[in-house]
Amino acid sequence: MSDSSVAIALLYPELLGTYGDNGNATVLAQRLRWRGIAAEVVTVAPRAPLPTGEIYLLGGGEDDPQRHVARDLAEGGRLTAAVEGGAVVLAVCAGLQVLGRSFATGEGRYAEGVGLLDIETGRPPRDQQHKRAVGEAVVEPRRSLNLPMLVGFENHGGLTTLRGHALPLGTVRVGIGNGTADRAEGVISGHVVGTYLHGPVLALNPALADMLLGWVVGELPPLPDDTVDAAAERVKAIRLEAAGLTTLGM
Ligand code: GLN
User: Fold this and answer.
1) 59 CB within 6 A, ligand 1
2) Sheet containing 119-122, strands listed edge to edge, beginning at the edge strand earlier in sequence
3) Measured between alpha carbons, how far is 141 from 169 in angstroms, rounded to an integer?
4) What is the pTM of this model?
5) Would you call 112 exposed, middle or buried from its count of C-beta atoms within 10 A (0-12, 13-18, 19+)?
6) How many angstroms separate the CA atoms of 70 and 73, rounded?
7) What distance in angstroms lies between residue 132's CA and the mean position of ligand 1's atoms?
8) Which domains does the chain show, CATH number per domain?
9) Which atom of ligand 1 is nearest to the CA of 62?
10) In 3-state terms, what secondary structure has residue 32?
11) Closest ligand 1 atom to the C-alpha of 19?
């Protein structure tokens, strides 16, 4: 990997790659290249040493692969050391859960997480465990981030509680998000961001992609295509759908 290039490490895509989340790596790399900044995507396999990266990405996945990922990443505090060294992390759904203290793997069983985030993921009460959070979501980002509305879709059984310094990424306007009474969605702690939004989320929300990139390379000028506010159009469509006024079959 050349020194001048931004290294984007895509962690365990064969275990955590549901719903197109691997595309987040492509989006980040391409948005850098469009600005004339070199970028390389490095795919990391389980058990392989963690490469030095400026950005680490984790996607969604099923409960079982999640347990393997958590064990692998916790070993020797590998990811924690990278974050302490200044790395940026985006973790989606199962990825978000894995970074916490513990997460449910169904039927009252729990697995230990990496412990990078002060969050815990449980399951709904026993009589409601058949219910998953599935569908389109609209999230109002926390004001300090100065981001437009975020969109994506969610599909998860786990519900996540934030503690300590972990703040919600935003507030759910449509959808379930973390599943807590305060309608929190996702988590942000320093330069570690977690969300339940798939899509891939960075293709649907370029401003979020640029926020992560900005932490690495400094503030970036907008791209010409960003004037087409696809996310705003989608928000409108999702809201109409939620109100039962139309369908998303656009
Ligand atoms: N297995 C986790 C859950 O159901 C995460 C699912 C996902 O990543 N889509 O909560």
Assistant:
1) no
2) 110-112, 102-104, 119-122, 159-162
3) 6
4) 0.93
5) middle
6) 5
7) 9
8) 6-224 (3.40.50.880)
9) 1
10) helix
11) 9
User: What are the structure tokens assigned to 241, written together?
Assistant: 């759908």
| Three-class secondary structure of residue 233 per DSSP | helix
Is 138's C-beta closer than 6 angstroms to any atom of ligand 1?
Answer: no
Q: How is residue 77 annotated by DSSP?
A: G
Contact 68, 108 (CB under 8 A): no
Place of tokens 């002060």: 118
Q: Nearest CA to 159 among 96, 208, 202?
A: 96
Contact 23, 71 (CB under 8 A): no
Say if ligand 1 is within 6 A of residue 194 CB.
no
- Ligand 1 contact, 67 CB (< 6 A): no
pLDDT digits (tens, 9 = 90+) for 196-241: 999 999 999 999 999 999 999 999 998 987 766 667 777 777 777 7
Residue linked to tokens 């070993």:
75
